[in-house]
Amino acid sequence: MRTTDGQFKVQIIQRAKDGWFQPVFYKWIEHDNEIREMLNEEGCWGSVYSNASISDTETNCLKAALEHLFILSGERIEV
Fold first, then answer.
1. Do the Cβ atoms of 48 and 3 come closer than 8 Å?
2. How far is CA 18 from CA 13, 22, 27, 30, 69, in A?
3. What is each CA distance from 35 to 17, 40, 41, 43, in whole angstroms?
4. Tell me: the pLDDT tens digits for 53-73?
5. Which residue has the higher pLDDT, 24 or 35?
6. Is residue 6 within 8 Å of 26, Cβ to Cβ?
7. Under a CB-based contact definition with an 8 Å cutoff, are residues 24 and 47 in contact?
8. Portion of the chain with pLDDT greater than 70, in percent
9. CA 72, CA 64: separation in Å to the nearest integer?
10. 49 band by pLDDT with thresholds 50, 70 and 90
11. I need a surface site. Which of 14, 38, 48, 54 has the fewest CB within 10 A?
């Protein structure tokens, strides 16, 4: 799920060791012109530190992830 401006996204993953769900947050990072020319790409997704907790269900994890995305971006996302 992404914010409408495309600057942040969250991925919900299910942990193999215990089956709980964990949100992973990313921010789009634009490359400067020199790097853009070398790599031939506009930018990349960089991981964002988060203290968002794990959840026992995907639904609960999604609710917490949406709230954390709001904190990061200031944008309220409806599902």
1. no
2. 12, 11, 27, 36, 25
3. 38, 8, 8, 9
4. 899 999 999 999 999 999 999
5. 24
6. no
7. yes
8. 100
9. 12
10. confident
11. 38
CB 10 within 8 A of CB 1: yes
Q: Over the chain, what is the mean pLDDT?
A: 91
Length of the chain (residues):
79
Residues 8-44: b if buried by 16+ CB within 10 A, e if exposed: bbbebeeeeeeebbbbebbbbeeeeeeeeeeeeeeee
Annotate the chain with DSSP letters as a single string: -B-TTSSEEEEEEE-TTT--EEEEEEEEEEPPHHHHHHHTSSEEEEEE---PPPBSSHHHHHHHHHHHHHHHHS-----
